[in-house]
Design a protein that fits this description.
The chain is α/β, with parallel strands linked by helices and 410 residues long. Helices cover 38% and strands 17% of the residues. The protein binds pyridoxal-5'-phosphate. The site of pyridoxal-5'-phosphate has 15 residues, from helix 5. The site of pyridoxal-5'-phosphate (PLP) has 15 residues, from helix 5.
């Protein structure tokens, strides 16, 4: 039996032989993380510029979060929701107070939280809006990413998410992103129960809508009695420079969907937040999860959110995001390899001047890794750059120096 690996090559060979090939990782093998840093099995140190797709906003292995995990793990980890535990209610109150909602429903993965939001919106549509049974429609937008379940991919426009995975779930109307008149046309239909959007499309390549789009979406939802279902799984928890990306436009979702950095990357924890009028449409026995709301998750969530508040991570993301984009914009002026820099806070992307089918962005990321910085392309020619939010200004400049050097020499 092989129970340890000592070299990167060994680890990669094992995963290749025994693991499903559902990812195409950058070939580094990591075995330690602390703050903004990761180390590979050979001891090389890297700046993490992906943050596990924004799940590690608080930095790797944050001592406060890890202590909460360890202390709770010694007491009680799982009861299921067949019984009460002494932590869940406290965590529910904590997240409700933090985000300003009356009720919270804990799940595990982001996909599950989105599934929960879909069920809530549909049931609200039938029981409150009066939509005829099985006729409810959720409006989604092109290039969305909400997860990988068969229902969620039914609203996807990305062929790599959908091809050969049908048949698909009906009940979605997919319109252009960042287009208010397309929204109005779709939302005015009486069978629509929800508008399901990301405030910035992270997986698609960090697409930021024009100022005012989210506010207009909120207004249209109110006008047509449609629930605004905001997927802040990647944009939330201080990533874009505010606790929620919706806060930039002072928008309040009817159903708020959170995951990833809710746990600081320690456990899969997601939560759906809504007020009583919406959340209480789901009755006992109609929805649940064995692990959702377990005491370990409850303890971790509170510690992870407390770190975000104590360390003022939203403010840090806002301030350093500006520094970062200024450096990248300056770089763009000095080379034709970058065609666009976009983002908010510390969720940013650069677009590489080559086709999405080319290897250029991948090769640039390989070169970043050689120089001690980890990032990965999305959709071929877009490189998302999203470090943990505990990064310092000095470190941001050091990373910009690496990015600059690699791109100018590529
Ligand atoms: N929603 C958004 C906006 C995401 O970015 C992701 C993951 O990248 C998900 C949902 C899915 O989350 P999970 O991978 O935890 O199911």
């Amino acid at each position: 039996m092989v129970d340890t690996v000592t070299t990167s090559q060994e680890a990669i060979a094992l995963e290749d032989k025994f693991g499903a090939h559902n990812y195409h990782p950058i070939p580094v093998v990591l075995n330690r993380g602390e703050g903004v840093f990761l180390w590979d099995v050979e001891g090389k140190r890297y700046f993490d510029f992906l943050s596990a797709y924004s799940a590690v906003n608080q930095g790797h292995c944050h001592p406060q979060i890890i202590n909460a995990l360890i202390n709770q793990a010694k007491e009680l980890t799982l009861t299921s929701r067949a019984f009460y535990n002494d932590k869940l209610g406290v965590a529910e109150k904590y997240v409700c107070d933090t985000f300003g909602y009356q009720k919270a429903l804990f799940m595990n993965s982001g996909a599950e939280a989105n599934e929960t939001a879909i069920k809530l919106a549909r049931k609200w549509g039938y029981t409150k809006k009066g939509i005829a049974e099985n006729q409810a429609v959720i409006v989604a937008v092109k290039k969305n990413f909400h997860g990988r379940t068969t229902t969620i991919i039914s609203a996807s426009t990305d062929p790599s998410a959908t091809k050969h995975f049908g048949p698909f779930m009906p009940g979605f109307n997919i319109v252009d992103y960042d287009d208010v008149s397309a929204l109005e046309k779709a939302l005015s239909h009486p069978n629509v129960c929800g508008l399901w959007i990301e405030p910035i499309q992270g997986e698609a390549g960090v697409y930021v809508p024009h100022d005012g789009y989210l506010k207009a979406a909120e207004k249209l939802c109110r006008q047509y009695n449609v629930l605004l279902m905001m997927d802040e799984i990647q944009t939330g928890i201080a990533r874009t420079g505010k606790m929620l990306a919706s806060d930039h436009e002072d928008v309040r979702a009817d159903i708020l969907i959170l995951g990833k950095a809710l746990s600081g990357g320690v456990l899969p924890i997601s939560v759906v937040l809504a007020d009583d009028e919406i959340m209480l449409v789901i009755k006992p026995g109609e929805h649940g999860s064995t692990f959702g709301g377990n005491p370990l998750a409850a303890a971790v969530v509170m510690a992870a959110l407390q770190v975000v508040k104590d360390e003022k991570l939203a403010e840090n993301a806002e301030r350093l995001g500006k520094v970062f984009r200024a450096r990248m914009t300056d770089l763009m002026k000095r080379t034709n390899k970058i065609t666009l820099v976009r983002g908010k806070g510390l969720l940013n992307a650069i677009v590489i001047n080559d086709s999405p089918q080319s290897e250029t962005a991948w090769n640039i990321c390989m070169s970043f890794a050689e120089h001690g910085l980890l990032a990965k392309p999305t959709h071929g020619n877009i490189i998302r750059l999203a470090p943990p939010l505990v990064i310092t200004e000095e470190q941001i400049h050091e990373c910009c120096d690496i990015i600059e050097k690699v791109i100018l020499n590529h």
